[in-house]
Amino acid sequence: MKEKVVLASSLCKQYQIGSLTIEALKNLDLEIEKGEFVSIYGPSGAGKTTLLNLIGGLDKPTSGKVVVFGHDLGTYDEDFLATFRCAYVGFVFQSYNLISTLTAIENVAFAVELAGWPRERIGKRSENLLKLVGLEHRANHFPAQLSGGEQQRVAFARALANDPPLLLADEPTGNLDVETGLEIVRILEKMKTKGKTVIVVTHDERILELANRTLRLHDGRIMDTNE
Question: Do 43 and 96 contact (CB within 8 A), yes or no?
Answer without folding.
Answer: no
